[in-house]
Known about the structure:
Blueprint: E1 16-20, H1 37-41, H2 43-51, E2 55-59, H3 76-86, E3 90-93, H4 99-107, E4 113-116, H5 130-137, E5 142-145, H6 156-160, E6 167-169, H7 171-185, E7 191-195, H8 204-210, E8 216-219, H9 221-230, H10 245-258, E9 262-263, E10 267-271, E11 280-284, E12 293-297, H11 299-309, E13 314-318, H12 331-341, E14 346-349, H13 352-361, E15 369-370, H14 375-381, H15 387-395
Parallel strand pairs: 1-2, 1-5, 2-4, 3-4, 5-6, 7-8, 7-13, 8-9, 13-14, 14-15
Antiparallel strand pairs: 10-11, 10-12
Helix pairs in contact: 9-10, 11-12, 12-13
Amino acid sequence: MALRQMDSLPVEEGTRVLVRVDFNVPLAEDGTVADDTRIRESLSTINRLRERGARVILMSHLGRPHGRPDPKLSLLPAARRLQEILGSPVTFVPATVGHEAEAAVAAAGPGDVLVLENLRFDPREEQNDANFARALADLGDVYVNDAFGSAHRAHASTEAVAHLLPAAAGDLLVRELWALDDILGRPDRPYWVVVGGAKVSDKIGLLKALMPRADGMVVGGGMANTFLAAAGKSMGASRVEPDAVTAAAALMNDADRLGCPIVLPVDVVVTTEFAAEAAARVTGVDSIAEGEMALDIGPQSIRAIEAALRDARTVFWNGPMGVFEWDRFREGTDAVARILAGLDARVVVGGGDSVSAVNQTGLQDRLTHISTGGGAALEFLEGRALPGVEALQMADE
């Protein structure tokens, strides 16, 4: 892709670099950062700019405050965590634009790092408002977009600002695009796709886009219930999307026509109560009782997945195999992570839940690439244009 990268920007000592990062991180009940993966992934860009003497002005959103200030969604915890990681001061600015933000930037010195308050506290951010974009642009001399997780949004900080300042892609954005582009156009084969999560309807576009390219697919998680229902299985009280059963059947027909095998669960972990400590049992998919719901894949399914992926050279994984947040129903997801970590293959993980699941196992360093972008990764793989990336391409023409 013809993206301008940071080295091409006129950055020297004192240059104000406005950087869109993705600090949309999960927060613990005490308000601290529960998972700092996205913060750590931004360090390459931040540190390289600091080394060049830039004043680094970071901006991000957090959650969905619907255009109103919400203390529970302040970026202050993210700024504090970044300061801990960097081991040097980080200035939190309780504003996004205006006199307070301008004064903070003016007071900063070469190599200093500032974090602006949550962009979505201002409704103009999500409206891609030109005046808000101009106010943001007034804080910087150049612009860097390093927020792949927000690149599918045409917001003021991701799209409009890129047309107002010399603009480039940050290190993380470039790594994300290269990793995903590799599995679209240049996968080593056999190439397998492992898809889980709750809903088929969220991933029909992804499955349609990847199926002609893949040598096989594994479907697990809640969405497997709908596929199994389409295959004629009685799923008891399991979550099934009635409106997606026809689509699942069509996808299986397409896979058969394309010679792309789909591995579905053959056994599942079921319970009669949707609760973390509910009593559970393993049963075949032909023996799910009327009041039982499937919340994880079973041991036979895990062995079938391991056998299918044994010779894989490229794997894309999106979505957990069950309700991995609860210990009783996480074994399927953990097992898939272990299987992928043990492969001699290029393994790319995309999607928020998948990232959390991998981090939970501690195996993240044994996988090739873990994407920080959930929706952005899926839309890119579906072949859809990402406004944040398109803006950088236009800026390079």
